């Protein structure tokens, strides 16, 4: 069985472009993405953006569903700790992400595939820089074949 | 252990007889040797059917969920922790529980016995103190219970009930607990690709019977994510990706809630190491947050609270 | 009827001969348990096994099977039209299947092969399957006899019966499929003493003598108590008070149903990815609340007791009444062995069978 690590380096293949599911908080990072766009800071089209009301809304099943549906990487981003629109949503989210990430690493998920950040609505340049960083990391990791379900493997 | 059986019966008889509780949850003798069956008694005269021995491994807290009456229940360390966790999540009411605590020296692992005596079938079992005698068709074998414990019991950090209304015995010492459970430590030594291969193989023969989920006292959702259809998070076929997704999510739903009783692994008909994932999460919760589930009725569950200074190092 | 004899070591190579014409499934050890697996170079058959953990039911009725395919692409002139999933049903031989698991297919067929409905996937797999059974008197203490399992030498469900004589195996064909398989396996005519030994073993098994001590913790009868079930009126049984007590320890997991060689329930799901759709049939379990959940949200079997009652009533009463082919159970004991809370069908059958009699029940 091929391990997830074995995809590494395949990103250099000419046609393959990483597909990255990006889950963004409406009140901050989504705005930062907007700002980055207005300021023409971002070019890549690798992201499928999902807007959520708060990073606290993000459940592990969304992240697994993204990988299962063929994402090569997932990036979740919310407001800086202390700046949550709902006071504490991202504080709860942080604990949940910490446990989730620990489990995913343990079962062999490449660190380059799962990313978290805090980006405020004013941080357009940070958004653009982080986006480039995430794309580069997922490209390093290569296509995530083992996590995706193409078609049910049944008789 | 016989001692505890007598004391347990007396306690149940008294509680039911005096009307302190409406039911009493314990174990009775099963139809197979090495099996105990959870039983819910409602009359004092049924008390003599209760037993207590190292076959009483299934977590009884499961049966306290969703009951509106006053419940008497016999609890070891892990059962009491499950009850605490359930009380914190409003699934049982502490004031309607009467917990009869038993200091626990560990439960037998039927799988270990199978491996120890391959092809031989136990006909009967008798427990005497720390030893068990198992009758096979071709002769008896006497074993130390402590050497044939179920995996979670071998590293149990809380063998004594953390909360009880009465205790049937003096507290016992816990076995030496390694910081990281042995299976997880072995897994840690492997590379990420090897771990992935290990989990793929480990779950490859899962039949999706959900015994692991249903045996867990903390799995009480009225609709489990595997049964949700809009959206459908997990496919229902035996596709390996879907099967693994079920196991990963099941474990994550227990993050900061699992009391490591091992009911999931005990219930699995195929000996799949389903507890591996949850015990790994338990170790992480302890290492990162110093948290263990179900120890304190005043302490909110791990994921139901936060500190501003919580670990933040992997956020960009 | 062709009979053949194989020395112990010559048997696996004879079975291997079948691989030229069949996909051959054999018992293999997997961890603590055995399972049927296709015999390729990565597995080693173990014919000394006693029981597989998961029954070989799935070789004819797979846990998950793609039935139909469709396209949702509207540019496709045939979009949204269901077509049969293309697949082959090559001849397969299940070698080493035990008589109870073979009989299970006869119990199952009333659901898939009826005058009104003939399930094409079941029919073709069943037709392509040759059951080469292993007969050895090694029943364990969780097993019992029913109308659909007469004991370790029951040949009713088999195409070939292979008697394990210790030093070797004696195989007897039981029909056309069996003749063909045995011809492919080669082997010698058995000597008279081997035939005599088979007779003796069968005679001995007719009056089973259980090793001393074995049944100490067991109900005394190796026969499932079902004699009075046919005459029991169904409604009082349904309304009997004991169901709550039977169901109390149940976790409502699917172990008993998924490990049962005679449970046939399934659910059908469509899975669509991009514009390609699959209609997949999956095993289902009457223990799951979802099994009976209506689209309205109403659940006619919303309570645990109702589900437990349905499982046992189906096995022990409804099947019996509807088909007149005995109870829906071949006595393999898997549910008894693997139930996490030790719910024992023998005890439930005794309650049903004895219902209405003033039998004194005392707690075990």
UniProtKB/TrEMBL annotation, chain B:
Entry keywords, A to Z: Iron, Iron-sulfur, Metal-binding
User: Where is the 4Fe-4S ferredoxin-type domain positioned along the sequence?
Assistant: 249-278
Q: What Pfam families does the record point to? A: Fer4_8
Family annotation (InterPro entries): 4Fe4S_Fe-S-bd (IPR017896), 4Fe4S_Fe_S_CS (IPR017900), Helical_ferredxn (IPR009051)
Q: Which domain of life is it from?
A: Bacteria
Q: Which residues lie in coiled coils?
A: none
The Swiss-Prot or TrEMBL record annotates one GO molecular function as: iron-sulfur cluster binding
The name on file for this protein is 4Fe-4S dicluster domain-containing protein
Q: Which organism is it from?
A: Eiseniibacteriota bacterium
């Amino acid at each position: 069985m091929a391990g997830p690590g074995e995809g590494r380096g395949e990103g250099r293949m000419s046609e393959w472009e990483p597909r990255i599911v990006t889950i963004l908080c409406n009140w901050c990072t989504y705005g930062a993405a907007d700002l980055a766009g207005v300021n023409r800071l971002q070019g890549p089209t690798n992201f499928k953006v999902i807007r959520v009301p708060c990073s606290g809304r993000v459940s592990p099943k969304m992240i697994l569903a993204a990988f299962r549906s063929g994402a090569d990487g997932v990036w979740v981003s919310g407001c800086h700790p202390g700046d949550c629109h709902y006071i504490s949503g991202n504080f709860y989210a942080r604990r949940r992400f910490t446990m989730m990430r620990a489990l995913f690493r343990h079962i062999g998920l490449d660190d380059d595939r799962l990313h978290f950040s805090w980006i405020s609505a004013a941080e357009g340049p940070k958004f653009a820089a982080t986006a480039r960083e995430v794309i580069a990391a997922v490209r390093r990791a290569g296509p995530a074949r083992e996590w995706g379900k193409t078609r049910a493997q049944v008789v | 252990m016989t001692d505890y059986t007598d004391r347990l019966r007396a306690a149940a008889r008294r509680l039911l007889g005096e009307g302190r509780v409406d039911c009493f949850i314990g174990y009775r003798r099963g139809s197979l040797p090495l099996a105990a069956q959870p039983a819910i008694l409602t009359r004092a005269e049924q008390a003599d059917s209760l037993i207590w021995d190292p076959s009483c491994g299934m977590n009884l807290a499961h049966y306290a969920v969703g009951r509106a009456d006053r419940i008497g229940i016999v609890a070891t360390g892990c059962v009491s922790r499950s009850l605490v966790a359930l009380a914190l999540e409003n699934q049982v009411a502490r004031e309607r529980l009467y917990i009869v605590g038993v200091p626990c020296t560990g439960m037998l692992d039927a799988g270990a016995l199978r491996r120890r005596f391959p092809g031989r079938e136990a006909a009967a079992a008798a427990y005497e103190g720390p030893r068990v005698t198992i009758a096979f068709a071709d002769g008896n074998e006497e074993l130390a219970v402590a050497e044939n414990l179920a995996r979670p019991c071998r590293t149990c950090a809380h063998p004594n009930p953390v909360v009880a209304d009465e205790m049937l015995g003096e507290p016992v010492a816990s076995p030496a607990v390694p910081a990281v459970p042995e299976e997880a430590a072995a897994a840690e030594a492997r590379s990420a690709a090897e771990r992935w291969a290990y989990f793929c193989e480990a779950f490859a023969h899962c039949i999706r019977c959900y015994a692991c989920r249903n045996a867990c006292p903390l799995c009480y959702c009225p609709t489990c994510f595997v049964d949700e259809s809009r959206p459908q998070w997990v496919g229902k076929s035996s596709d390996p990706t879907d099967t693994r997704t079920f196991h990963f999510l099941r474990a994550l739903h227990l993050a900061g809630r699992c009391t490591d009783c091992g009911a999931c692994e005990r219930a699995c008909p195929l000996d799949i190491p389903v507890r591996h994932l949850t015990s790994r999460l338990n170790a992480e919760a302890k290492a990162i947050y110093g948290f263990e589930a179900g120890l304190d009725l005043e302490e909110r569950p791990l994921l139901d609270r936060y500190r501003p200074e919580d670990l933040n190092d992997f956020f960009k | 009827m062709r009979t053949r004899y194989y020395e112990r070591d010559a048997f696996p190579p004879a079975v291997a001969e079948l691989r030229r014409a069949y996909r051959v499934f054999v018992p293999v050890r997997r961890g603590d348990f055995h399972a049927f697996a296709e015999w390729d170079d990565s597995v080693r058959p173990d014919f000394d096994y006693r029981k597989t953990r998961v029954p070989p039911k799935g070789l004819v009725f797979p846990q998950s099977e793609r039935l139909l395919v469709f396209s949702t692409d509207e540019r496709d002139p045939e979009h949204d039209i269901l077509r049969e999933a293309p697949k082959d049903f090559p001849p397969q031989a299940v070698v080493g299947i035990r008589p109870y698991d073979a009989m299970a297919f006869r119990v199952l067929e009333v659901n898939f092969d009826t005058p009104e409905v003939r399930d094409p996937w079941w029919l073709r797999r069943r037709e392509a399957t040759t059951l080469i059974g292993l007969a050895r008197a090694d029943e364990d203490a969780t097993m019992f006899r029913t109308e659909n399992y007469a004991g370790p030498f029951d040949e009713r469900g088999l195409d070939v019966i292979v008697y394990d004589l210790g030093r070797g195996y004696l195989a007897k064909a039981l029909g056309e499929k069996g003749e063909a398989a045995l011809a492919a396996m080669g082997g010698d005519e058995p000597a008279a003493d081997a035939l005599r030994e088979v007779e003796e073993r069968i005679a001995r098994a007719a009056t089973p003598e259980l090793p001393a001590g074995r049944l100490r913790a067991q109900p005394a009868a190796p026969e499932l108590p079902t004699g009075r079930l046919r005459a029991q009126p169904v409604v009082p049984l349904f309304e009997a008070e004991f169901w709550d007590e039977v169901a109390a320890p149940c976790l409502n997991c699917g172990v008993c149903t998924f490990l049962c060689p005679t449970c046939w329930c399934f659910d059908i799901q469509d899975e669509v990815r991009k514009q390609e759709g699959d209609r997949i049939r999956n095993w289902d379990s009457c223990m799951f609340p979802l099994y009976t959940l209506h689209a309205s949200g109403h659940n006619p079997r919303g309570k645990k007791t109702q589900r437990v009652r349905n499982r046992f009533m189906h096995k022990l009463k409804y099947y019996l009444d509807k088909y007149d082919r005995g109870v829906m159970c071949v006595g393999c004991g898997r549910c008894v062995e693997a139930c996490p809370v030790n719910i024992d069908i023998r005890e439930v059958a005794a309650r049903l069978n004895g219902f209405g009699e003033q039998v004194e029940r005392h707690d075990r």
